[in-house]
Amino acid sequence: MLMMALLYWLIDIKKFNKYAWIAVVVGMNSIFIYMFFNTVGYQWLNGAVAIFVKGFSGLAGIDPKIAAVFSALVTWVTEWYICYWLVKNKIFIKL
To answer: Looking at the 3D structure of the chain, how many domains does it have?
Structure first.
């Protein structure tokens, strides 16, 4: 609740929304990203990202636990970019 209050104060009252567009991109297609991740994204995207991350981390000799965290971050960025592409092309999924 304190975090929500802080963000409300920063973004809505103080008008400090320089970095708010990162969340706005996902919010504009939140239903799409939810459905995508629970169907295709979980089965396909996570596996595809994990293959590349494990390959690069194996070459670099990175600990598997750190590679798993890095894989999750890369997956999140990839899903965010899908939402960004949808917003950029003015494609909005609505119910």
So the answer is: 1
